[in-house]
Specification:
Elements: H1 2-32, H2 49-72, H3 78-107, H4 111-118
Helix pairs in contact: 2-3
Length: 119
């Protein structure tokens, strides 16, 4: 077990150093070209990753809770109840987050794009 942890730590260290080195070189090249390196940072659009993850975890928890209740009243087999409800609620939460993200993207489109999209 210790060998695995040491190997992962070493790999992470080497990866981090290489990643930071490459990022430094990219930034220096952008500065030399007269561009602002902050322009190319993360996307300008807000991300719903934390909302998506939160919805997924809440839905999985709700699926486990409902499966526990179903099993307690002997309505369904234990394994089938847990697997089906966790995947069902998890999938529903991911679909809802997809539609929320799609709605947000449409709201953030420029006015010209919205007009051509409606035609």
């Amino acid at each position: 077990m210790e060998g695995v942890i040491i190997s992962l730590g070493l790999f992470t260290l080497v990866y981090g150093i290489v990643h930071l080195n490459i990022r430094k070189k990219e930034r220096l090249m952008l500065i030399q070209a007269g561009l602002d390196p902050e322009t190319f940072e993360k996307n300008a659009k807000p991300s719903l990753t934390s909302v998506k993850l939160g919805m997924l975890l809440v839905a999985v928890g709700l699926g486990i809770l409902l499966a526990n209740i179903i099993v307690k009243f002997n309505v369904m087999d234990r394994d089938a109840a847990y697997f089906s409800l966790v995947f069902l609620f998890g999938g529903i939460s991911l679909l809802v987050s997809y539609f929320l993200e799609r709605k947000q993207i449409k709201e953030n489109l420029p006015v010209d794009t919205k007009e051509t999209e409606q035609e």
